[in-house]
Write a structure and sequence with these properties.
Elements lengths: L1 E6 L6 E4 L1 H4 L9 H8 L3 E10 L2 E10 L4 E11 L3 H15 L6 H8 L6 H14 L4 H17 L4 H16 L5 H18 L5 H12 L4 H14 L4 H13 L3 H14 L4 H13 L3 H14 L4 H13 L3 H14 L5 H7 L1
Antiparallel strand pairs: 1-2, 1-3, 3-4, 4-5
């Protein structure tokens, strides 16, 4: 279990690197100092987890990345039912240790973390891993897991919000009808917000469908701003906010938002690809292709990056390369895609 911290301009504020990027270093043999260099972070929170029955034991170390010195360490043992309360305790201990000032909203957020059914939490984590793969099959499996989590614990706001995120992505790729998806996103997001009014994630999902599919620009921006007010470190809110700006032809702001998302989640394939998408729409085809190349060095089977690189190469008149990339996109796409076939055509 590990997290990354990156300092903001002010010394008493921190930016936390997204868990999807941190997870890439699970079981890594790289030195802490090397990880710090790669992610441009000053501190690494590393630990080990041991589970037995309904109990879990976690040992944690806060390490100064440049010199690999341990600043703080502690071991915890709790019941799985109290996993979110347990995480709150860890956050409070770390905040005290590094003398970070928690604003009232953050304190309130930490104070409101009810117990959760451990099996529901496991389903949620498994679903989030599938959600990050961004394929039709993985999203359908993720939806099934989030629905299972909701059945196990109907008050688990994260699972409701994750369901909203899943339908939003399904609609964005035409894997489900927009009308059906929007209704389901609104229902799941509303449920999550009714359970936890300080939860940022459902506001971002709602803003996404209000802008991309319904063109309710004022309401959509209100939702994005609320999401970022609640959690300025939420990468997906910055990510989806960029599409709002792009749709309004405000590309400098779109690029600014997507790059903020990338700072928080630097190893996300989808965010890195969509940095390229924003540059592509701004007609910076060289910059876009450079982003797609970076993605494909991370994952040589990511169909979306091949598809977008093919479009950018086509704009540059590199038609043979464009055709080759569109063929690769079709090859690596799991299933059939009329959109990719049309692009190749």
């Amino acid at each position: 279990m590990c997290c990354r911290f990156k300092a903001w301009d002010e010394p008493d504020e921190l930016r936390v690197i997204a868990s999807s990027t941190a997870a890439k270093y699970k079981k890594t043999r790289k030195r802490i100092s090397r990880i710090g260099e790669e992610l441009e972070v000053q501190y690494v929170l590393a630990g080990a987890v041991l589970g037995s029955g309904n109990k879990v034991r976690v040992s944690i170390q806060l390490i100064h990345a440049p010199d690999e010195s341990q600043l703080w360490g502690k071991a915890y043992e709790r019941k799985l039912d109290d996993i979110l309360v347990f995480l709150r305790e860890i956050c409070q201990d770390i905040a005290r240790e590094i003398e970070i000032k928690l604003v009232p909203l953050e304190r309130e957020r930490l104070d409101y973390l009810p117990p959760v059914n451990p099996e529901a939490y496991k389903s949620y984590i498994a679903g989030r891993n599938l959600w990050n793969k961004r394929t039709a099959e993985s999203l359908r499996e993720a939806i099934s897991l989030f629905e299972q989590a909701n059945k196990l614990d109907s008050t688990f706001a994260r699972a409701h919000s994750a369901l909203a995120d899943s339908y939003a992505v399904m609609a964005s790729q035409s894997w489900i009808s927009p009308k059906q998806a929007c209704d389901r996103v609104k229902s799941a997001a509303s449920k999550a917000m009714s359970i936890d009014r300080n939860f940022a994630e459902p506001h971002a999902a709602l803003g996404f469908v209000l802008s991309v599919f319904e063109h309710q620009w004022v309401k959509a921006e209100q939702e994005f701003k609320e999401s970022l007010r609640l959690n300025a470190n939420y990468a997906t809110a910055h990510h989806w906010y960029s599409f709002y700006f792009a749709a309004l032809d405000r590309l400098p702001e779109a690029i600014q938002q997507i790059k903020k998302a990338q700072e928080i989640d630097p190893l996300s394939r989808i965010i890195k690809t969509n940095v390229g998408t924003m540059l592509y729409w701004a007609r910076d085809y060289e910059g876009a292709i450079d982003q797609y190349n970076q993605v494909l060095r991370l994952d040589g089977h990511f169909w979306y990056a091949y598809w977008m690189r093919g479009l950018a190469c086509d704009e540059k008149g590199q038609h043979r390369q464009a055709v080759a990339d569109q063929r690769r996109a079709l090859k690596y796409f799991p299933g059939q895609s009329p959109l990719l076939a049309a692009s190749l055509g």
